[in-house]
């Protein structure tokens, strides 16, 4: 009987710094060791149901230090690697906590700026640009060269859009708080008094409600970039953005399959379809043919239908995704589709978004018969730079299942995020999803 491959080496664990990456390593260890809930229960004496939760890495949260130690003991991991595993767990927990703290800090900063915006005449203030803080300018897509009128338009439209994503019962409160649609010259205290009179509540109660609404808007704005985010590339209002993108790229002996799950949020009413595209770079060897539609297969697995597949340039394929019903402002929808690429062992896979993207999770499973000689992470580079294999980047290594996992957050339009690798034969082209 063939003995199992050794678990991930300490040098590889040293580069694990995200929850998904840690879970991927732990999942690989469990699979390679043939670990089951029954084995854990027999070795540790814990109930089988508890043992099952330790092996179900996909559903469970990060293990405790003791739970991880139980898994490592049953898998017979040596002392040196136990230290590496525990260090990795500590590091990943710290990074996860830091991310959460950073998110809370951004929300609190934006809430403070929104409270400053609501003072006096609110968005009707004649000197409105002076009351727009740095965090709010980012949310509204305000550029350094924007005129006062442009700043007012961007802030007003963004605030109206964010308010529509609150529960409808809070729309009136939010509009009055920021002076949207109120009579000219009405100051914040007067608007609060109006709210109190209509709800038969005192000013202190209405102040608490106003603060609650401000914080909710800050949460919404941080979770989903506003319509004016990064407008320079399109020159028009952003109709939607991606709240979550998950891609699994799997290589076989003669080609590759891309499974993409994309959740979008509409910024307009009546959104009937989204324009999508992939870019296939030119092969490194001039003798190899350019990509064609005949070499691609694009199928929607769930969430709607694909149509109007066409070549818009020698390397760019565009198509449209249509949800079952149109989306209104703030509504979400998820597409799951597959792209098949024949005989195209791509040396990089990147997301280069046209519109803002909150998160991108990428898992690449290489052909174990033809593994790459090296793998690297591409993080926020220009698309042309992403194709350069010589640029200095953070190295990554496939696990024993020949898989590499990485993730990104707050992706900027027109920048590339993903993985690159050096194939053994050095003959490949590349692929961007937009």
Protein traits:
single chain; 434 residues; alpha+beta; Immunoglobulin-like; 8-stranded mixed β-sheet; 6-stranded mixed β-sheet; 25% strand; disordered N terminus
How would the global form be characterised? globular
Output the CATH topology of the largest domain.
Immunoglobulin-like
The residue fraction in helices comes out at 25-40%
CATH architecture of the largest domain: Sandwich
Average predicted local confidence, pLDDT? 76
Quick summary:
The chain has 434 residues and is α+β, with helices and mostly antiparallel strands. Helix content is 35%, strand content 25%.
How would you describe the overall organization of this protein?
By secondary structure, the protein is an alpha+beta fold. The protein is built from 12 helices and 14 strands. The chain has helices spanning 10-13, 19-33, 37-44, 48-55, 65-74, 79-118, 134-140, 148-163, 171-178, 188-199, 203-223, 383-386, and strands at residues 240-251, 255-266, 274-280, 296-302, 305-311, 316-322, 332-342, 348-351, 357-365, 374-382, 395-396, 403-411, 415-422, 431-433. A hairpin with a 4-residue loop joins strand 5 and strand 6 (316-322). The protein is globular and about 70 Å long. The model is unreliable at 1-11 and 225-236 (pLDDT under 50).
């Amino acid at each position: 009987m063939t003995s199992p491959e050794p678990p991930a080496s300490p040098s590889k664990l040293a580069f694990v710094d995200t929850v998904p990456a840690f879970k991927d390593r732990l999942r690989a260890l469990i699979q390679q060791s043939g670990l089951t809930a029954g084995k854990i229960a027999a070795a540790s004496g814990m109930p089988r149901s508890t043992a099952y939760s330790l092996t179900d890495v996909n559903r469970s949260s990060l293990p405790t230090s003791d739970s991880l130690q139980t898994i490592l003991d049953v898998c017979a991991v040596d002392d040196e690697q136990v230290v590496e595993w525990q260090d990795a767990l500590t590091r990943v927990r710290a990074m996860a906590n830091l991310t959460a703290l950073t998110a809370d800090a951004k929300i609190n900063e934006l809430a403070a700026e929104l409270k400053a915006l609501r003072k006096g005449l609110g968005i009707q203030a004649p000197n409105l640009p002076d009351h727009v803080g740095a965090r709010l300018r980012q949310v509204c897509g305000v550029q350094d060269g924007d005129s006062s009128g442009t700043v007012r338009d961007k802030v007003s439209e963004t605030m109206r859009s964010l308010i529509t994503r609150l529960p409808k019962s809070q729309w009136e409160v939010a509009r009055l708080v920021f002076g949207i649609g109120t009579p000219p010259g009405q100051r914040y205290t007067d608007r609060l008094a109006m709210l109190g009179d209509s709800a038969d509540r005192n000013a202190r109660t209405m102040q608490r409600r106003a603060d609650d609404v401000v914080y909710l808007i800050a949460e919404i704005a941080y979770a989903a970039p506003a319509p004016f985010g990064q407008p320079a590339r399109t020159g028009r209002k952003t109709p939607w953005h991606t709240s979550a993108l998950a891609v699994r790229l799997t290589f076989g002996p003669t080609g590759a399959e891309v499974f993409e799950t994309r959740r979008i949020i509409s910024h307009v009413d009546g959104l009937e379809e989204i324009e999508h595209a992939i870019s296939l770079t030119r092969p490194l060897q001039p003798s190899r043919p350019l990509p064609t539609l005949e070499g691609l297969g694009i199928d929607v697995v769930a969430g709607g239908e694909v149509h109007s597949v066409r070549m818009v340039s020698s390397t760019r394929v565009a198509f449209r995704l249509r949800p079952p019903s149109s989306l209104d402002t703030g509504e979400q929808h998820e597409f799951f589709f597959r792209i098949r690429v024949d005989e195209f062992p791509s040396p990089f896979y990147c997301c280069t978004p046209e519109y803002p993207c909150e998160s991108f999770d990428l898992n690449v499973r290489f052909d174990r018969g033809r593994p790459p000689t090296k793998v690297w992470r591409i993080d926020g580079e220009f698309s042309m730079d992403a194709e350069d294999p010589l640029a200095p980047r953070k190295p990554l290594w496939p696990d024993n299942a020949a898989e590499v996992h990485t993730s990104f957050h707050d992706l900027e339009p027109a920048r590339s995020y993903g993985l690159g690798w050096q194939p053994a034969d050095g003959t490949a082209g590349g692929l961007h999803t937009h």
